[in-house]
Design goal:
The protein is an alpha+beta fold and 137 residues long. Helices cover 40% and strands 15% of the residues. It is built from 6 helices and 6 strands; from the N terminus they run E-E-H-E-H-H-H-E-E-H-H-E. The strands form 2 sheets. The chain has a 4-stranded antiparallel sheet with strand order 2-1-6-5. It has a two-stranded parallel ribbon with strand order 3-4. Helix 5 packs across helix 6. The longest helix is centred in the C-terminal third of the chain and has 15 residues.
Length: 137
């Protein structure tokens, strides 16, 4: 099983998607948490419509639930952990991508611990920051 993430909006220099297996997502979020790029406190997502309803909706109707899918805990920085731990159509916003990248860039030597896969993920986050974020499905 995989997690498919797709950039929202127009891009000029990125293919607009990133796919990872569940073990891959655990590794991505482990690295992000270690650098402070995730909101990892006990914050839980708000209750929203059942995933079964979202899964059957066309994307334009899913916008009815848009505020819930874009929810970000007030006063936190980075991407909320739950948005990357399910394929429930979460919308990781451009602001969350930007915050995560700012934390990464200020966390020490940005070239440190960068393999090709992690570099691809960072380019995906940069693309999400200049577009309208990305969805996780």
């Amino acid at each position: 099983m995989t997690v498919d993430m797709t950039i929202i909006g127009q891009l000029f220099d990125h293919p607009g998607y990133f796919t990872a297996s569940w073990p891959g997502m655990r590794e991505l979020t482990r690295r992000m948490a270690a650098k402070g790029m995730l909101v990892t406190d006990a914050t839980k997502p708000p209750t929203g419509p059942p995933i079964e309803e979202l899964a059957g909706m066309p994307p334009e109707e899913r916008e009815v639930a848009g505020a819930w899918l874009r929810y970000h805990p007030e006063g936190s920085v980075g991407i909320p952990w739950w948005k990357l731990h399910s394929n429930d159509y979460w919308h990781v916003t451009s602001e969350e991508c930007r915050q995560a990248m700012e934390v990464w860039e200020s966390s020490g030597d940005p070239a440190e611990d960068v393999d090709e896969w992690w570099a691809d993920w960072l380019r995906f986050l940069e693309a999400g920051a200049v577009a309208d974020g990305f969805t996780v499905a």
